[in-house]
Write a structure and sequence with these properties.
homodimer, alpha+beta, Mth169, Chain: A, 3-stranded antiparallel sheet, about 40% strand, elongated
Chain lengths: ~80, ~80
């Protein structure tokens, strides 16, 4: 079984209210934080054992469902 | 500047509705998926350059704000 880690980040310039609010709260708690970015990760356990096939399938999943190309960029790693 | 990546996962046995729904939808789209887990990641850019100090601070952030010890487990990596 292949496990893919899909990391979905907001593109540069897209507002990240979750990150901004987390930063604000950490600062209120007294931490010295320059920036916080919120990232979404999906760990996908695939039925296939073929790594190349898996890469293709996961790319397709990102395009069809997981990421919004207008605001997101994604990266896929396997473990 | 040190950048910490805090990965916040649900503990084993805790329901993961986001992962479950993502799995269901991927299956409806025709993908062969064994399991999907939703993970939250915060990329924290710290004011300090001291790696050891950063590790301590980020641990504290997790305990005070980012993770709920009842349902979450977290891991911290630096880049």
């Amino acid at each position: 079984m292949v496990v893919a880690e899909v990391k979905i980040k907001l593109k540069k310039g897209v507002a990240d209210p979750e990150g901004a609010n987390t930063k604000k709260t950490l600062e209120l708690l007294g931490f010295d934080v320059a920036d916080v970015k919120a990232v979404k990760v999906f760990e996908i356990h695939l039925g296939t054992d073929d790594r190349e096939d898996a890469q293709k399938k996961v790319e397709e999943m990102c395009q069809k469902l997981l990421a919004n190309p207008v605001i997101h960029e994604y990266s896929i790693t396997f473990s």
